[in-house]
Input
Amino acid sequence: MLKRIIVCLVALFLLTTTAFADTRTTLHSGYDEGKPVSDDAIHSILTSAFSMPTGGNQRALEFFVVTDRDVMKGMKGGNPWSQALDSAPCVIVVAADVDSAHYSELLEMDAGIAAGAMLIHAADLGLTTCVLSIAPQEERIASVRSALGTELLPILMIAVGYPAVDVTTSASIDNWDDAQVHWK
Output
């Protein structure tokens, strides 16, 4: 539980302290299915993930770039909220090599930090994103492993694409709640 809180706080920190003006409007909107994400954009997004710190500098994350619609369908198993995989032109799966990790208890935090950097960078490129959880749900882990043909531990995936025109997005809603902010 603490790891998930830390991951969320780091992602929130990254999202709220950067100077990307369009971040709120480009996160979590629908996708323009006819416009693929360029290899250069994907490389640039992944560069931001590799630039992030990891627990103990363990560098145990690996990334799968998925553009094959059949593979995306296979990754949907056990995830009832994976509609983004139906239209996103690209999905980046953040996975961990548990065997090479020095601090396996920090892998989810490492993945969250990398994901936060990718979300911000994608928004800066004018792309829209949606994060989908995988771990620790065993059925989701098994589906993604099978679809990707890997034994690595898939932790989360990020659907990436160009925003569709005229979509309604929850990212534009102000969810601020004073009761959830504690000043000491």
Remarks:
- The domain at 2-164 is CATH 3.40.109.10 (NADH Oxidase).
